[in-house]
Queue: 2 jobs
Job 1
Amino acid sequence: MKYSKEELEEYKSENFKERLKFIDSYANWLKKTPNKEWSKQQNKLLSR
Amino acid sequence: MEFEFRDNVILFERELSDLDKFVIKFVEILDKNKINYVLVSGYVAILFGRSRETEDVDVIVENLPFEKFGLLWESLEKEFECLNTSSSKEAYYGFLLEKTAVRFAYCGQFIPNMEIKFPKKEFESETLKNRLIVKGKGYSLNISNLEKQIAFKLFLGSEKDLEDARHLWNIFKENLDKSLIVEKAKELNVAEDIISLVLE
């Protein structure tokens, strides 16, 4: 096998931690952005 | 983000999405039929800004006698159709009483859909009792208690669920009791490393 199970698990785990960091930075942006503004941007995503 | 917590009410205004309008239309029919319900799972995170889509909105409704469910069915069928069956009797006896959810979408559509079920486990009955109310201009939505919602997401445990939990925690941490989330998560046998990873 090209990659060990441990390497792949570590890759997945790092990837997930990166996702959590993105979620944190997005939440920080949400908290300082008026509802009207962030909800408008979110609606664009939801209406694609 | 602006919101105001007042006991079990969150005052909250946002530009409504098509998904929000779909949910509001559905729960207005539940309200008109005096049916106690609570919105749970991913939609709660999306309502408060989570940047993801969903195809279904989970809602727990109180256990109903067939007569009351029949009246709800009649009210719904003007705009919604059941995706599982065209028979209210089958939906009730074959699905809901068998602890299986039934889904309703706008007539002729498949997504989004409302996935409704009766409470199966005690924690679902508790969720129905201890709900929060989100109030904005022209809408009122019953959502699950946020500590329980986060603990339940930790229990479900997929990456999407853990991300929803982290999002809700990030947004509401100043208003929530972390020890209660940990306690509820432990009741659901969530591993300590998952709890600390998400609630760090």
Note: The mean pLDDT of chain B is 96.
Job 2
Amino acid sequence: MDKLKIANKEFSSRLLSGTGKFRDKADIKEMLKQSGSQIITIALRRVNLENPQDNILNYIPKSTTLLPNTSGARDADEAIRIAHIAREVGCGNFIKIEVIHDAKYLMPDNEETIKATKILAKDGFVVLPYITPDIITCKKLEDAGASAVMPLGAPIGSNAGLQTKALLEMIIENSNLPVIVDAGIGLPSHAASAMELGADAVLINTAIATADNPPLMAEAFSMAIKAGRVAYLSKLQKSSKYANASSPLTGFLNL
Amino acid sequence: MSFLNILNKYDNFDFEEYLRSVDDEMVLSSLEKKRLDDFDFLNLLSPKAKSHIEALAKKAHEITVANFGYTINLYLPIYISNYCSSDCLYCGFSKKNRIQRKKLSLNEIEIEAQEIAKSKIKHILLLTGESRAVTPLKYLCDAVKILKKYFSFVAIEVYPMSQEDYEVLFNSGVDGLTVYQESYDKKIYESVHISGEKSNYEYRLETPQRGAEAGFRNINIGTLFGLGHILKEAFFSGLHAAYLSDRYLGCEFGLSLPRINDAEGHFKPNHILDDVTFVQIMCAYRLFLPRVEINISTRESADFRDNLLGICATKFSAGSKTEVGGYTKAKTEPQFEISDTRKSDAVIQRIQNLGYEPVYKNWENI
């Protein structure tokens, strides 16, 4: 399958995974193995920097690219400070900007996200901003130096599928950056749909972490993502509810 | 606009009659809804809903796992003073109680903090009795600065303050605020808070709002079950949390369900919150407010807490001491008796055995 390229790095898996909400941290390692996911997001606020024994980083193989996120940040300034801490403690220079000033629905603040992206990209970070799907925001993020965009499919943790499909389609059609659908994907079939639409990758956390068997569910997602990507590459046949007569409207023209 | 306007709307509402009118169909309909209105919430609190408690618990569990995963936030309280200028009939710290009073010096706070920091838990709740004179703003700010060296998240449970004072505390490093209304029934409130600053019902009612205006990230509220009519108190607590979460989107809100136990003063509760109703209320909170934190302290027994974890609790204290200086050299009376007396390590082990991830740290000092 074709490779996913973010900044100058290539990945053979198009599944991005997460470390939150697992019953048992030991499942994370197995989940990565079974799914082949090569990028994993991790909330810096949950990393115990002083106690290596409880440090979640111990469960992640060195070959996996860390995508620390700024969850908990309520504005650009807090996101920037968290990003710097993440880099200083050795999480690399990838950063997922998450600026949420809404504890009720957990919807991202696009305006503050653009601000943070501009500053962090200039500072050498590979910035992947998490956003409410909006095509204008995506264009501004491109100008701000983002390395990908991460529009949400549905509210975080909702498992509701591609509720924002019409908006995602616009973004996918117009974006010059990789589009990673993040949040709301509850089933492998949702992930396949996102890939069929032309998304470059998807990020799945809740649906894997809260499954009865997280590694097995991760494998299912991985397969669905591959299927969706191959379908996209093979150019999906447009579906139609009705049988098509060959030229019902222009047949009279004797072409 | 304050929550008082919402409360006043229910002045002439006949709760008894409404609760009698709730039937199985109404309960089941409210149970199935994605977004519950005030009356759905009340239906789930009704006596009729008790016969659907298993379904209620299952739904509450499902919503909790979707929103929080299999995790539980942990915190520890640190009592730094038990001086109090209010006379509250049910409280061990009441100024009328002849107990030994103690206020930790900054040096003692540091020693206590070092002891607590030996556990893995990075969230701390700083508590005092309600005495502005003995524990003024400056003292609290100094205490917070010490605690911030050892903990990544500091919340306070002290006397209610003005927004300006809260802003000073926020800038000193306070992340969260806990303030309980105790009772939403003004008459009952005034009858148990005899004198002192705490007797001002409205000032207390608007305290969480002032805290949210000041910028705190996390605010925990609740009623003290035992003072007022159980279901009404639960209903208004939920409405209060909904009111706040709708207005202050940037702040996380939590609900606690403290119920009166044997504190010094031997107050006999007017109403008893039994275990079944406790679980029912907790589940109704979850369905009404999917993202609210539900905090269960060590007032509850070990076994009861372990069971609540599997339903919809999201925050536990673990290995708590409620005496001033309790972690190093306890001498004073506790504010309330602890039921779950396990050490924090034992609670953590149990949480893991139950298939949950204990969250020791959920914020970074930035």
Note: The domain at 4-47+55-233 of chain A is CATH 3.20.20.70 (TIM Barrel).
